[in-house]
C-alpha cells in the first residue's frame, strides 16, 4: 500500500513539474479536446488532475475501513496481552524469602 501511495505522489509531482515546464516554455499552449475544440493546456491538465483526485475518493473509504479494522485487531491483541501480563504478576511479594524445605517461621518466635 505504501508503494501505491508513493507512486501516486510521484506521479502528481511529475505532472506538476510538467505543467510548470510547459507553461514556462510555451505559455499559450493549447490542446484539441473532442467536443470542446481547443482549450488551454493548463485547463486540460487541471481537469485531468482533478478527475484523478476525485477518483481517489473512491479508494479512500476502503483504505480507512482497512485501517479501522487493523486498529480494532491491535486493541484486542493489546487487551489480551495486558490481561496475560496481569496474570503473570505476583499477587503478593514475600518480604523474607523462604527456603521451600524448611517450615514457615512463626513471627512471635522470631523476636525471642
- Oligomer classification: single chain
Placed side by side, the strands forming the largest sheet appear as 1-2
Radius of gyration: 34 Å
Main beta-sheet strand count, sense and barrel state: 2 strands, antiparallel
Query: What's the total helix number?
Result: 3
SSE string, helices as H and strands as E: HEEHH
Average pLDDT value? Answer: 82
Number of strands: 2
How much strand? 5-15%
Shape: rod-shaped
- Low-pLDDT residue intervals, each spanning 5 or more residues: none
Q: What structural class results from the helix and strand content?
A: mainly alpha
Helix content estimate: 55-70%
Distance between the amino and carboxyl termini: 74 Å
